[in-house]
What we know:
The protein is mainly α.
Amino acid sequence: MLKITGYILFVVCCVLFLAIPVIPWLGFSKGQVAGITTGLVIAGEITFYLSLFILGKSFYTKIKSKLKFWKTKPADTDIPEQTDKINPV
């Protein structure tokens, strides 16, 4: 039951973040849009960290492995060394 609660919190977190781009088209004033967006970001962060706390380290490593594409691959270091053709030593 606790894992289900964690997954529900994670889904709520995603819904809160996906609602942010929709807010400006709902007819609110600029101040209201800023306030609602701030509230959605804070609520999304809180629900995300609560879901991580409930689901544990295994869920965190699973999310982390899914986001590995953000890291750049290391440069290829197997480049052969070029000799100086003009002034050979």
